[in-house]
Write a structure and sequence with these properties.
Number of helices: 10
CATH architecture of the largest domain: 3-Layer(aba) Sandwich
Largest sheet: 7 strands, mixed
Strand order of the largest sheet: 6-2-1-7-8-10-9
Low-confidence stretches: none
Oligomer: single chain
Helix content: 25-40%
CATH class of the largest domain: Alpha Beta
Number of domains: 2
Structural class: alpha/beta
Bound molecules: S-adenosylmethionine
Distance between the termini: 43 Å
Number of strands: 10
Radius of gyration: 20 Å
CATH topology of the largest domain: Rossmann fold
Amino acid sequence: MSIDPEQTQYVFTQAEFERVRTLLYQHSGIKLNNSKKIMVYSRLSRRLRATGISSFQEYLELVEKDQGNEWEAFINSLTTNLTSFFREPHHFPLLHDHVLALEKKPFRLWCSAASTGEEPYTIAMTLIDAFESYTPPVEIIATDIDTNVLAKARAGVYSLERVEKIPKETLKRFFLKGAGKNSGLVQIRKELRDIISFQTLNLLDEQWPIEGPFDAIFCRNVMIYFDKDTQYKILKRFVPMLEPHGLLFSGHSESLLHAADLFKLRGNTIYELA
Ligand SMILES: C[S@@+](CC[C@H](N)C(=O)[O-])C[C@H]1O[C@@H](n2cnc3c(N)ncnc32)[C@H](O)[C@@H]1O
């Protein structure tokens, strides 16, 4: 699809789009296909406006030179952060059973593409239920490459729309309702926020700033953005990050068949070490 020059403020050539794709792929592993040109234009033109830069060429030079703020904003602009509470709900009863079967304290879990926090908070609710305590003996590390979504996750504030599918009883137990200028918003209770540590982590980086082993790793709906080689390399690095009894939870459209030497299916997109 081409971009209508009448509708656009900046020239965005195919070569510039290719440069964006290469930079993003090299740094984050995310592969953008050709159909994403308009999306990229729309997201990055906001950065051009914010920085007062007048062309994509100049903007990309800045990103290439700068390994700091604008580089971070570039990555943050191009990630896709779609998520929801209790997404792929069949995973949570299984996590609950895994916790009970292990009786391990502390139970350590890594949520490796946490986005705006709905996934790690759903995990926290499940663990609080399993241990029947608001201060369960658990450690949840929630990471993402995108620093903007992590800031939202840390705050734990959501619109009522984001929580409308959560049963009333669960809402009451785990959220506080905003009043006055916060009406229309809810906040995750402090007890849940306290058991999660949010950190920036790029799955592509050679060093991960966290230490295993974990009793479970969630890596859901992020592998779809990577090619098979990148997926395999990351999965291989998950192996020593998991306890021998550990489980890997993946997304509904992410088969790990190409890594059958590393992981075998336990059931319904949940894997264990091969
Ligand atoms: C579609 S969201 C999935 C969120 C959640 N796991 C879920 O299933 O609902 C994908 C997340 O992966 C993150 N991501 C993309 N590339 C990444 C990388 N190289 N390292 C870490 N996180 C990455 C994005 O920032 C985004 O928040």
